[in-house]
Amino acid sequence: MAITFTSAFKRILFLLLITFTFATTLTANDLTLSLPPAVMKGIDATVRVEGIDKITNTSPKLLINGVRVDLEKDKNGFHTEYSFDEPSEVQVIMPGKVISKNVNPIPLWLSILPPLIAIIMALITKEVFSSLFVGLLFGTATLYKYAGANFFIAIGKGALAIVDTYLMEALLDPGHISIIIFSMLIGGMVTLISMNGGMKGIVNILSKYANSRRSGQFITYLMGLVIFFDDYANTLVVGNTMRPVTDKLKISREKLAYLVDSTSAPIAAIAFITTWIGAELSYIQEGIVNLGLETTPYSVFLNSLQYSFYPILTLVFVALLIWQRREFGPMLSAEKQVTQNSIESIKNEGKRNPQIMKELEVAENINPRWYNAVIPISVVVIGTLIGLFYTGWDAATWSNKSISITTKISQIIGDADVFSALVWSSLSGVFTALLLTTAQRLLTMKESIEGIINGFKTMFHALLILSLAWSLALLTTHLHTADFITQILTSINISPVFIPALTFIFSAFIAFSTGSSWGTMAIIYPLMLPAVWKLGLDAGLSHDDIMPLFYNVVSAVLAGSVLGDHCSPISDTTILSSLACSCNHIHHVRTQMPYALTVAGVAVLMGTLPVAFGLPVWISYLMSIGILFLIVRLVGKKI
């Protein structure tokens, strides 16, 4: 009997346990409360709740500081936008379960410190890797400190979050992965066409035309203009191709990086058919729809080009420097150093500095042939264009007879998948180089593959920096760094004629702080296009008077984004320029920044600002070019 009673008791207990578990699952199934990674003071935060009472089919209740807050239902559960201005208790209540979280909002001004710390440290220490890491660590530690952790735990968790959250998320982004693969493939291709004598063959031919420092720089400049359709392709192809030529002509790596960086983004930003055009038109489209303007985004873009002072004047300034054979500032020191040293010193520095790829010597039994390099590079260039057309093709757009052929091509490329096009073309370039090398028996298959892998390895250091820069950009997004800067701008009551110049400076500062020109455009276009229109109407201006200011603001956002990108040591295109030219990254930033700021100053004072007051654009360009010529002539020293 004792045994029977015990067995029955166990069965009853088991059934009660199962019933309790089942009931609990029904009443509080997967109840979750989630908040953004960083809750900033005064910024709307999305409070998300998931879960529902399956017995009564009732929704959860949300209480903030004991006050009921209404939730909106969506396909993923419930959510609401709430601005936390003080430490608060957030509760989610359902029958049988309560979830509670304490929220301590972070002051918004702290959001500017992570990128600012990284930038200042990089400029002072001349070492970008540790600078980016410290900037990231400050930001992530701040998140945990305001989440309630003590100082040491916040530092420890922040360090782990850099790797398992921000770095991981940056590396899992499809666009970022595409850039990494593209960069590695370009590095492998360049290494292989160096080993098979192709690069030496190009050098031998270009040497006939690039027989002086000026002609070598001019050819680099022309190549930068020719590869106009994408800044990434421009930077990596031109930098890697011209580096052996400029080394031979005793042109510093810093000057090569400047030539590459200052022809890639500026030309890609203003050309009619580029990978930038899709993003630009989408932002403009959103602005004109919200304002109810009867025009097309492409028409606005075309009208705004005349106001693109910084990109256009940058291209003019580069040409003036080459023509006059003059330099100033840190670039003058870099050029003097390389002209006074031998070619061997350049190679030796490459061996000392891990950021500079070692130049590969061609075996004595290999006859240098130019086409072993030109064919793979052409495959990359032409393949990118084909890939852009393939991924962006729209039969309806092409058959539309009401739009011009230029507009059709621009819309197709604008809708293209640039990252897929770059990966396909670079992979095709590697296969082409491999086929040419092995078919001519210049190298064995094993030697060729080892060369390609060695090319992959040379990209590691720069790609690690690039990944940290992406992580910092993600952190600034979570911390709402742009919102902090935006609040400063909108608090100023100013005349509409000053808005284009202010927009240029504002865009440059955000791009400098975040390292992203595209991210800056996404932030500033929706803010400044309605702002200039509203301010114009409030000032009593007519539609015809506002439109020139509107076009000026459209171009100012783009131009300021490019300027900030040029000056920022955490910018991906600036890092890629250093990578492609095998130049010390901080040296590149230090030598390029004075030139970029010089052009920016002239662009604002002689272009953006006076044109907003009514000065004809052509007079502004004449004045600007004249002043740049005088600066180069009077301040620059001949090299």
> How many strands appear in the DSSP assignment?
10
Q: Which CATH class of the domain at 27-105 is shown? A: Mainly Beta
Unreliable spans: 13-28, 347-360
| Relative helix content | 55-70%
Rg calculated over all Cα atoms: 29 Å
- CATH topology title of the domain at 27-105: Immunoglobulin-like
The CATH architecture of the domain at 27-105 comes to: Sandwich
Q: What is the spatial order of strands in the main beta sheet?
A: 1-2-6-5
Main beta sheet = 4 strands, antiparallel
Structural class computed from helices and strand pairing: alpha+beta
Shape: globular
* Number of alpha- plus pi-helical segments: 27
Average residue pLDDT:
80
Looking at how many chains there are and whether they match, the oligomeric state comes to single chain
Spatial separation of the terminal alpha carbons = 108 Å
The proportion of strand residues reads 5-15%
What's the helix and strand layout?
Elements: H1 2-27, E1 29-34, E2 44-52, E3 61-64, E4 67-69, E5 72-74, E6 77-83, E7 88-94, E8 97-103, H2 113-125, H3 128-146, H4 151-172, H5 174-195, H6 198-209, H7 213-226, H8 231-248, H9 253-270, H10 277-291, H11 297-304, H12 309-324, E9 326-327, H13 330-340, H14 343-352, H15 371-392, H16 395-399, H17 405-414, H18 418-439, H19 445-458, H20 460-478, H21 481-490, H22 499-514, H23 517-538, H24 543-567, H25 572-581, H26 585-612, H27 617-635, E10 637-638
Antiparallel strand pairs: 1-2, 2-6, 3-4, 3-7, 5-6, 7-8, 9-10
Helix pairs in contact: 2-3, 3-4, 3-20, 4-20, 5-8, 5-18, 5-19, 5-20, 6-8, 6-15, 7-8, 7-9, 7-12, 8-9, 8-25, 9-12, 9-24, 9-25, 9-26, 10-11, 10-17, 10-23, 11-24, 12-26, 12-27, 15-17, 15-18, 18-19, 20-25, 22-23, 22-24, 23-24, 24-26, 26-27
